Amino acid sequence: SMQCFPSLVLALSSLLGALALLQLSLYLRVPSRYGKHEERLCRPRGRLPARCAWFLQELPSFLVPALLLALRSPPRLEPLGCRLLCCLFGWHYFYRTFIYPFFTRGRPFPLQLLFFGTLFCIYNGFLQGYYLIYCAEYPNDWCTDIRFTSGLLLFLLGMGINIHSDLLLRQLRKPGEVTYKIPQGGLFTYVSGANYFGEIVEWFGFAIATWSLPAFAFAFFTLCCIGPRAYHHHRYYLKTFTDYPKSRKALIPFVF
C-alpha cells in the first residue's frame, strides 16, 4: 500500500506556493481570459459550454482523494477530526462538481484554461488527499481544539457566503442571457467579489482547521488566484456601469 513521504508533501506544497506567486504575477495587471474579461482580450480558439467545462475541471478534486482513500489499507481515517477534515474538502468539491455546474449560466469556457484548471485540480486533489489520508496525525481530541473549531466556523461561513453569492449571480440572468448586470444583495452590498471573498475565507478556515502546510499553501494559492480576479471585476463594473455603487470595495469589506 501507499506510504507517507513527508519530503513529497513538502516539495508539492512548496511548488504550490510558487505557483501561487506565479499566478499573482501573471494576473495582477491583466485578468485571465474568460467571462466578462474575454471581450477585451484576444479570444481563445476552442471553447466548451460552461456547465460541461466546470464539471470536468472540478471533478478530479473530488475523484482523486476518493481514489486515494479507496487505495488505503486499512480503508479508514482516524481520529474523528481527520475524517471530518476530509469530509470538508469532499463536501466543497461535491458541490462544485455535481451541483454548481448544472445551475451556472456562464459563457462558454476556453479549452486552454480548462486544461490548466483540470491539471491543478488533479495536483491539489492529490496533495490534500494524500496528506490527510496517508500522512496527517491528529490527537484524539482534535475536534475540540481551538484551531479545528475556529477553522471549521470560518470554513462554514465562507462556504455559505460563496454559495449564496453564486445564487445571487445566477438570478441576475434569465436562461440564455449572456449580458452582465450589477450584482445586488448579500455581501455584494459591500464588495464586488463576494463569491471570491467567501471562497478565500473558506479555504483559510480549512487551513486553520487542518493546521498543515498543504492546506495553507492551497489557501495562499486561492488568494493569489481569485483575489486579482475580484479586483479586475471591480474595475470592470466601475468602468461599465455609471451607477455602480462607489462605496463598494473590490474584495474585503471596508478595506480593499
TrEMBL record:
The keyword Disulfide bond does not apply. It is an enzyme of class 1 (oxidoreductase). It catalyses: 17beta-hydroxy-5alpha-androstan-3-one + NADP(+) = testosterone + NADPH + H(+); 5alpha-pregnane-3,20-dione + NADP(+) = progesterone + NADPH + H(+); a 3-oxo-5alpha-steroid + NADP(+) = a 3-oxo-Delta(4)-steroid + NADPH + H(+). This is 3-oxo-5-alpha-steroid 4-dehydrogenase 2. One of its GO terms (cellular component) is endoplasmic reticulum membrane. Converts testosterone (T) into 5-alpha-dihydrotestosterone (DHT) and progesterone or corticosterone into their corresponding 5-alpha-3-oxosteroids. It plays a central role in sexual differentiation and androgen physiology. Keywords: Differentiation, Endoplasmic reticulum, Lipid metabolism, Membrane, Microsome, NADP, Oxidoreductase, Sexual differentiation, Transmembrane, Transmembrane helix. Residues 108-256 form the 3-oxo-5-alpha-steroid 4-dehydrogenase C-terminal domain. The keyword Membrane applies. Gene3D superfamilies: 1.20.120.1630. The lineage of its organism: Eukaryota, Metazoa, Chordata, Craniata, Vertebrata. Signal peptide: none annotated. GO terms for biological process: androgen biosynthetic process; cell differentiation; sex differentiation. Its EC number is 1.3.1.22. It is found in: Endoplasmic reticulum membrane; Microsome membrane.
